Every structure is written in C-alpha cells, then in structure tokens.
Amino acid sequence: GITTIFVTHDQEEALSMADRVAVLNAGRLEQCAPPAELYERPATAFVAEFVGTMNRLAGRLTGGGQVEVAGVTLPVDGEAPASGEAEVLIRPENITATADPAGAATVVSASFFGSVTRVLLDLPGGGSVKSDVPSRDAGGLVPGVRARVEPALRPVLVVPAPGSGA
Q1: How much is the pTM?
Q2: Which has the closest alpha carbon to 34: 157, 43, 159?
Q3: pLDDT by residue (tens digit) across 150-159?
Q4: Rounded to whole angstroms, how far apart are CA atoms 53 and 11?
Q5: N or C end of the chain: smaller count of CB under 10 Å?
Q6: Which residues pair with 21 in a beta bridge?
Q7: Which domains are assigned to the chain?
C-alpha cells in the first residue's frame, strides 16, 4: 500500500517488480503502463525497441489497416499511413523459423538460451531477422541451413520507412 518510485536501467528488474513502468526518452515520457502492456502494445517505436528485442522488417501498407511483410498480410496495431513503404516491428518470439531446403532465409547463428534458441537469419534481398524458437524445435537450425521464416498472424507496429518523408 506504499507508493514507491524505483529508477533502474535493468529492464527485467523493472518488468518483474513494477505495477506500472514509465519509459523516458531524452527526459520526455514516452509511455507509462503495466509491464505486459508496455511489452505487448508499445505506444511508440522507441518504446518497442527499448523494451526487449525487436526486428525491423521492410513492409508495404496495403490499406485498410493492413501491412504486407515477408509474404504475409498482418493487421496494423495503431495508426499508419494508408499505403506505401513502411518498416514493421516484430518481436523474435513472433517470428517462426523452420528448417526447409526450399526456404528463402539462411541461418547465420543459433544461440541456446535454455528454453529458447535465438536464431539469426539472413533474408533474401538483404537484412536479417531474429527468431526465438523453442529449443526442442531448433535442432535443425544450424548455420548455413536454409529456413522458412513466417511472422505470427497478430497485429504489428508500423513506422515510416527510411527516406519515405513521413
């Protein structure tokens, strides 16, 4: 029943202890929310990338609050321009990577973290993506292996593409 303000730069500590977490950027409040909301529904691209790990993938807004990324059409979380190029922010746990000789991506590295293995993959046309795969399913994802990469069918945060003028 005592209100306490605790300042930390340790994200795990903040997310595990707090009822609400405030994220500041250059002295300005970006978002103040319960930890799960902050992580799952960041209000800004800064919060999304500051809290946890985030992938930025090239996408194309298709109108109607949808964006096409990695061959999949996903709903946009929040506001976005009606159409045009954009960058889509997706967490590694929302990217599925599966060893597949016909896959378009190539495994660069796989780091075992216990229950999950973080797989870094090069994408066709440049760029890379991180995928958190349950370790029990990651055995075939070794450097040099071809893989299929698919984003989870859930809303994503979208930001203007570099040079888009937005």
Answers
A1: 0.86
A2: 43
A3: 999 999 999 8
A4: 11
A5: N
A6: 33
A7: 1-52 (no CATH), 92-150 (2.40.50.140)
